Amino acid sequence: MSAQAPSAVILIRAERFKPNPATAADNAFQHDVPAGQDDDETAAKALAEMDAVADALRAAGVRVHVFSDEDHTRPDSVFPNNWLSTHAGGNVAVYPMYASNRRHERRADVLELLKSEYRVQTIIDYSGLEPDGIFLEGTGAMVLDHVSRVAYAARSHRADTHVLERFCTDFGYEPMAFDAVDHDGVPVYHTNVMGCVGTDVALFALELIPDKQRREQVRERLTVNGRTVVELTEDQVRHFAGNAVELCGRTSDGRRNYIMAMSAEAHRSLRQDQIDEIEKSCTIVSVDIPTIELAGGSVRCMIAGVHLDRRPAAEPEITEAVEAIDDNPLTADGRDVVDEELAP
What is the pTM of this model? Predict the structure, then answer.
């Protein structure tokens, strides 16, 4: 299985979704809801789109963990990849968020799910940097090449290079920071809107990197292991063509099924030659999510990939240590004793 393409994902079903006014200032991809559309209608349309994404991924054989969020104060919680990333070897990162009303999107129950169903050894939490005004919004701010161990990051308010370097030291990546701007000189707010990295193909808007030397360095690094780069235009980026993610599903007969998940809007913006290049190594799976895209993010932003090993289905053997605290142990970690003590 490719280190780049996770076979499981986390989605947040944000029941009170709407474009977040606190993020509009530096997110040029964000738009207002259509005139006359109230919050309830917006939320209902977004929920249908979230469910469609989950259904499409399940149909492709991807394992999908869905968490509900009824909190109206977390309009952007549908984008969990900004606060959470997981990594091979049992490592998890939790990130500092730029907008103050996004900081309580971090959820203990998501981390507990990961610990209970996957092998988690270390959780490194960078969120304590928020009071210092230092931010790195996860795999929104970074596009990670898990194969070549490179972290690509467009500098912005949401991608501080000092935290980037700390993350790279902790998790074993090479930092590759650069400036990226649109034709008006507005910085790209999140790196993952301008590009994604798959196992054998990358979609990247290299033209948004104004420094020609740095642009060529990024191109060279993307292709060093033989990966093909599909170059995106700024217009395609505006249609979220860069906001895609490679995942590994399973066919009905159990064979691996590599997919490139993106929105229908992104898919429509691609030329046929670009589609052909992508589908040499994976199948495009696209879903129409126009309401969610009003918030300035698309399918990749909705997905927190799980790059962790699953725990075995069978309960591990009860150890002597657990037997020492329980005359008749029921669980291997002694939690039955704890549950009994906490019972009212």
Answer: 0.90
